[in-house]
Amino acid sequence: MTAMNTEQLSVDTIKALSMDAIERSNSGHPGAPMGMADIAVVLWTRYLRVDPADAVWPNRDRFVLSNGHASMLLYSLLHLSGFGVTLDDIKAFRRLGSPTPGHPEREPHLGIETTTGPLGQGFGTAIGMAMAERHLNAVFGDDLVDHRTFAFVSDGDLMEGIASEAASLAGHLGLGKAIFFFDDNGISLDGPTDWIFTEDVAKRFDAYGWHSVSVDGHDRGAIAEATDAALAVGDQPSLLLCRTHIGHGAPTKQDTSKAHGSPLGTEEVAAAKEAMGWPVDESFLVPAEVSEFFASAMQENAAARRAWEASRDSVFAGSPEVEDLWGRYHSAPTAGLDVPFSVGESIATRAASGKALNTLAVTAPGLIGGSADLSGSTNTNIDGSDHFGKETPAGRNIYFGVREHGMGAIVNGITVHGGLRGYGGTFLVFSDYMRGAVRVGALMGAPSIWVFTHDSVFLGEDGPTHQPVEHLAALRSIPNLWVIRPGDATETVEAWEMAYNRTEGPSALVLTRQGLPVLDRSAGGVQRGGYVLADGSDVTIIATGSEVWVALEAADILAANDISARVVSMPCVEAFDLQDEEYRTEVLGTTAPRVSIEAGVTDGWHRIVGDGGLSIGIDRFGLSAPWKDIATELGFTSQGVAERVMAWLGA
Amino acid sequence: MTAMNTEQLSVDTIKALSMDAIERSNSGHPGAPMGMADIAVVLWTRYLRVDPADAVWPNRDRFVLSNGHASMLLYSLLHLSGFGVTLDDIKAFRRLGSPTPGHPEREPHLGIETTTGPLGQGFGTAIGMAMAERHLNAVFGDDLVDHRTFAFVSDGDLMEGIASEAASLAGHLGLGKAIFFFDDNGISLDGPTDWIFTEDVAKRFDAYGWHSVSVDGHDRGAIAEATDAALAVGDQPSLLLCRTHIGHGAPTKQDTSKAHGSPLGTEEVAAAKEAMGWPVDESFLVPAEVSEFFASAMQENAAARRAWEASRDSVFAGSPEVEDLWGRYHSAPTAGLDVPFSVGESIATRAASGKALNTLAVTAPGLIGGSADLSGSTNTNIDGSDHFGKETPAGRNIYFGVREHGMGAIVNGITVHGGLRGYGGTFLVFSDYMRGAVRVGALMGAPSIWVFTHDSVFLGEDGPTHQPVEHLAALRSIPNLWVIRPGDATETVEAWEMAYNRTEGPSALVLTRQGLPVLDRSAGGVQRGGYVLADGSDVTIIATGSEVWVALEAADILAANDISARVVSMPCVEAFDLQDEEYRTEVLGTTAPRVSIEAGVTDGWHRIVGDGGLSIGIDRFGLSAPWKDIATELGFTSQGVAERVMAWLGA
Fold it and tell me: Over the stretch B226-260, which tens digit does the pLDDT of each residue have?
């Protein structure tokens, strides 16, 4: 069989596998795998440098399927390429416990680089990967880091604001090694895209500074030419607008929204197979020449991988410093942070965070990030480092612009790329804007670090539009995200240490705008989530963040009224919940009634204070005023808290 | 003084007022008010048809300050125009209790159409207003509805994805009466915008289908010419890219980020005043001729308003049907919904929601909305109505495209426009994508209705990327948002009734993908948030949504084991909390231990079940599998629940 015929056979194999798996599970999206099969075969057999023998080889090309509903396309490609996705796994598509869920879930050892499905996330994450490559390339040079990032994207991805944000930044940065293939099939779930999406996509991406070109998405020669041209453009990301037919090859459903999100049905599948000369009665058929064709491509990739390893070894042999540096970028985090503060001095935890970040940045060279146009306010700059720009890719300060959601996905992409650790900052209230990315990061276990400052109504005059009240509760509700709200500068340092050393998921540092006194406390405690800061027997006051010193002062007032108050600082509820019961009971006590204080909604605190307890919080939106006026108005002064506790105790 | 001089004097007055207020409060953003003062004076005195004598006149032009940090610009304009913002209010800028908070908060009677500040929200909300106008114009004709929507937007707005989404849709719809002024000052908080924002904005908006033109933002003649030209373009929204100087007139801080977000300082203010020939020692000065100049413009507007009233009266006199219809669009909601279902039939609450919506839509002609490319899945189409399109603006089915955040702001804009009631639908998991808009809607008390379907892991095969677990808790944490998760079709009808009749804030309907049995229950109960569905004395099981029938079946199993279980349906925790204590105690009981069941994180349920209670939930991400397999795996079958309860009771 000629190469051209084998290529066609490969396309047909992917279509048949996708149809078969979706029929078998009676659930899935056949349209995109069939429509993009031609593009996929060209990319995976002629360009994409990945190697199933070492799926996580650092210099591999990255592939992101942003239109994650086309998961059967990816699973088919992984299977044909010899990654650990078996035919049985494909037969168990969308079944309990299979590695082939409805949307791809990050599993680098299987060749699944990132979790996708929520539209636009993959687009932004792929941009983050390309930024990671650009930075590491600047640090280590072409011999060690020089790969491309390829992504498949749909009209849905391009409609999402997160993709607009990431695209604008990518164009600004001139990320020449990012090559995106747009499945321009003219069909969305609701019907033809001309009902909703008539913008000139090429022109829009031109405006962002991308190289864009239209191509017939079923003409494999043309796809290869366009890919070659895109690869030749060094200083612009590329968008290949591939005109495709959704459900390509389905006799009656091609080019209709019926091919999008439902199985084609046995009749249509049979007719599609017949039309492409496929044995109608065979399911999950992989012709030997297709396996050989892919194996041959992967052998070339393995050679490329070995060549890279040789090149790396030679660099390392010539320069132990580079080897050492590479090791520091690629080793597990083990930060031990020491940043001195004087007890009693007033310092905002955002400022303490800036100091902690800068201390950490010295020993953790792979730490890279920035903020969504709030670098000064969020204290997220690394001193002495450049900004990460087109001409200054070695800079570690990323200016994301006012693009929170894009930042979220990009930071996830930087983090899951490997070699780097991404962080991103904005005001806590705007965590809402990036929640989609925070969630996907938590789901895929990406240890991104979020720096959320201006963490309560006490940001003051900017008023309720900018004052978070529900955000602590809302973030705590996300599984696998640790929310850490330190009570002073020293807790902030421990919080950074904890977030940085965490590898199984993201952490959100929640920090004040206003100054807080540095507390007289022993080191440690934050890691356990909650600990006793001052002992007492009549009442236990549990506080977080800016309410910790208020609780301590309130305890003094209570003491003057013959009430002995224990004060517990609880910077991380998630970590506290993981402690053994003995410790938790020891901290919270068993006899004294409990009070929680937190400048936010009281949701979640009842569980800690119990039925007899009191939760002091802010179950309403905030107000615009100087922060001390707000504290008085809402009863969050030491005196106000002490009085409230005394009244409640009946004292 | 000549008109031209008075115009300049007006510009200077706005600059001086803004500087003075920000100095006095020692907080605020002087740069944008100073940079946009020329544009503002042109727009407000030559074009904008608003009337302080009747601030909520239905056919007024709408003005949205999307860059809400420029609030002093709006407050200055409102004061000069004779709206109820006094000089004392301006002196109390950003102080407790003033109507002049840091960012504008919706107060239509003062001329503040919508709450802005979180960037991009105003952009999308203004597009929603323009869509509302377009629709009402199609329904009622030019004599009754014919106004423009003007918005001021910043580079930050344009970087936000939400604005990209709204802009793409607006271009698609050809909203000719939307005229947006971009404050193109080249400066953001982090520094010059060319650090982060080098896209070709005009080209990008051309790609969306907008009319765009660049103009010197300090050349008032040129601004007027460009505005005239924009108004002449009937079938495209317009973006006027106004090249401005941030902090225009501040001798040393103009054109720097120092003018952006901090007071200029007394010296700089004095120097700025001196440079523009302003009495340096005067604060909060409003020259009489400026007051007269604005008064004269407003007199013309009052005449326009009276002319509209006359025209309306004449239309009504000629057609009582139109008057009646107008009344139905503009009256307070008083839905009483009756949709029949047969006990025991299986129907997804999303499907019941579609029926309720369609029943309501008959008597509520102002109900208009749609979904983010999931109309079929969310059952949000109004049968028999067209889709809202450029050529079919009378259609009530809006196809938002895959643009959740844009949809959120647009629906808010439709709702706060008046005359219409907006709704928007997507999968519950994607409420994350639009949370910024949901929050602003709750903050400003816009009674938008959100239709969130596919509300749990039981959506099945699409897997954890699409399965909400934390979203109920996260939405409940937002103040003034009612989260309603009905337990069957009949509760769903009541939920729609409740959401529609609510005027003080938004409601989120949380609905299943999978079929649920129609329960044998009496009408009522949902309005009270929670009620007893089946009585019992040994244990009280509290359930929401798809867990209600599971609880009822589990109660049957418990009964067979001599355990008498009460089942409480609690579709709306917020409404339940508003009931008096007697009712709440009656429903929850005082003696039997309590169990909650909800297919989501258990956050928040401890407060209901108490210290001795049991919360059955899903404190983890979901999994990809058929929904019944998931139910078995996670213990959410009737049998699983009954066994868990028995084990817990020690029975």
Answer: 999 999 999 999 999 999 999 999 999 999 989 98
| Contact (CB<8Å) B387/A105 | no
What is the C-alpha to C-alpha distance for residues A461 and A217, in angstroms, rounded to an integer? 54
- Tell me the residue type at A537: S
B6 in reach of chain A (CB within 8 A): no
How close are the terminal C-alpha atoms of chain B, in Å?
92
Q: Is the pLDDT of residue B1 over 60?
A: no
- The helix/strand/coil state of B369 is strand
Is B514 a residue whose pLDDT tops 60?
yes
- The string of DSSP letters for A195-241 reads GT--S-HHHHHHHHT-EEEEEETT-HHHHHHHHHHHHH--SS-EEEE
> From the centroid of its chain, how far is CA B49?
24
A187 has a pLDDT exceeding 90: no
In this prediction, residue A3 has a pLDDT band, given cuts at 50, 70 and 90, of low
Assess whether pLDDT exceeds 90 at residue B595. yes
Contact (CB<8Å) B117/A466: yes
**pLDDT over 90 for what percent of chain B?**
96
B-chain residues near A162 (CB < 8 A): 161, 433
pTM for the full predicted model: 0.98
At residue A4, the pLDDT reads 61
Cα separation, A370 vs A131, whole angstroms: 13
C-alpha distances in angstroms, A493 versus A336, A534, A627, B231? 10, 20, 25, 56
State how far residue B400 is from chain A, nearest Cα, in angstroms. Answer: 7
Q: How many residues does chain B have?
A: 651
Q: A27–B105: do the CB atoms touch at under 8 Å?
A: no
Share of chain A above pLDDT 70, in %: 99
Quote the pLDDT of residue B605: 98
Q: What is the mean pLDDT of residues A333-352?
A: 94
Query: Given A163, A373, A606, which is nearest B190 (Cβ)?
Result: A373
- Residue B628 phi/psi, 5-degree rounding, is -70, -30
Judged by DSSP in three states, B45 sits in: helix
Q: Where are any strands of DSSP class E within B263-396?
A: 346-348, 367-371
B402: contact with A, CB 8 A cutoff: yes
Strand partners, B242: B183, B215
Task: Give CA–CA dist A271/A275, Å, rounded.
Answer: 6
Q: What is the Cα–Cα distance from B615 to B603, expressed in whole angstroms?
A: 9
- Smallest Cβ–Cβ distance between A160 and the set B28, B198, B403 belongs to B403
Q: Which amino acid is at A593?
A: P
A45-74 residues labelled b (16+ CB within 10 A) or e (exposed):
bebbbbbbeebebbbbbbbbbbbbbbbbbb
User: Taking all residues of chain B, what is their mean pLDDT, rounded to a whole number?
Assistant: 97
Least CB–CB distance from A195: residue in B208, B387, B611? B387
* Whether A621 and B480 lie within 8 Å, measured CB to CB: yes
| Residue length of chain A | 651
How far is residue B87's CA from residue A543's CA, in Å, rounded to a whole number?
41
Share of chain B above pLDDT 70, in %: 99
**Cα radius of gyration rounded to whole Å, chain A:** 27
DSSP letter for each residue of A566-600: EEEE-S-HHHHHHS-HHHHHHHH-SSS-EEEE-SS
Q: Do B402 and A156 touch (CB under 8 A)?
A: yes
| pLDDT one-digit tens code per residue, A538-582 | 999 999 999 999 999 999 999 999 999 999 999 999 999 999 999
State whether B161 and A629 contact (CB < 8 Å): no
Tell me, yes or no, if B462 comes closer than 8 A to chain A by beta carbon: yes
B469 reaches A (C-beta below 8 A): yes
Burial of B447 from C-beta contacts in 10 A (0-12 / 13-18 / 19+): buried
Express each pLDDT in A348-384 by its tens digit: 999 999 999 999 999 999 999 999 999 999 999 999 9
